Amino acid sequence: MPFNSQTVLIVAAILFALGLVGVLTRKNIIFILISVEIMLNAAGLAFVAAGMRWGQPDGQIMFLFVLAMAAAEVSVGLALVLQAHHQYRSLDIDQMKALKDEVPG
Amino acid sequence: MNNLIALIPAFPFLGFLLLFLIGRQLPKPFIAWIGAGTVCAAAVLVLLLGIQFLQAPPADGAYTQTLWQWLSTGHFSCAFRFRIDALSLVFVFVITFVGALIHLYSVAFMKEDRDYARFFASMNLFVFAMLVLVMADNLLLLYLGWEGVGLCSYLLIGFWYETPANCRAANKAFYITRIGDTAMAIGLFLLFKELGTLTIPDILNASPTHFQQGASNTTLIALLLLAGGMGKSAQLPLQTWLPDAMAGPSPVSALIHAATMVTAGVYLIARMHVVFQLSPLAMAATAVVGGLTLLVAGFSAMVQTDIKRILAYSTISQIGYMFLALGVGAWSAAIFHFFTHAFFKALLFLAAGVVIESLHHEHNIFRMGGLKNRLPLVFKTFLAGAAALAALPFVSSGFYSKDQILWYTWSAGGGSPVLWMLGISGALITAFYTARLVIVVFYGEMKTPVSTYPAKLMTVPLVILAVLSVVAGFVEWPHNILHLSLFSELVQKVLPATILRTGIPSEIVFQGIAILLTLTGIYSGYYLYYRNTHVIGQWQQKPAFVAVRNFFFSGWGFDRLYNTVFVKPFVWMTDLNKTDFFDQINKGLASGSRQLNRWFSYSQNGSLRWYVAGVLVGVLFILTLQLFV
Amino acid sequence: MILVVMISILLVAGFFCWLLAQWNVSMVKWISLSAVAIDFLLTCFILWQHSVTPLLNSPAWLVEYRADWIPSFGISFHLAADGLSLLLLLLCFFLGLLAVACSWNEIHQRTGFYYFNLLWTLAGIAGVFVALDLFLFYFFWEVMLVPMYFLIAIWGDNNRRYAAYKFFIFTQAGGLLMLLAILALYFIHGAQTGTYSYDYFSLLSTTLSPTASRWIMMGFLLAFVIKLPAVPFHNWLPDAHSEAPTAGSLILAGLLLKTGAYGIIRFVVPLFPQAAAAIAGWAMLFGVIGIVYGALMAFAQTDIKRLIAYTSVSHMGFVLLGIFSFREIALQGVVMQMITHGISTGALFLLAGMLKERLHTRDIAQMGGLWTSMPAMGGMALVFVMASLGLPLLGNFIGEFLVLLGAFPANGPLAIIATLGFVFSALYSLRLMQRVFLGPLTIETPLRDLNARELATMIALVISIVLLGIYPQPVLDLVRPTVMQLVEGASVATR
Question: pTM for the complete prediction?
Answer without folding.
Answer: 0.88
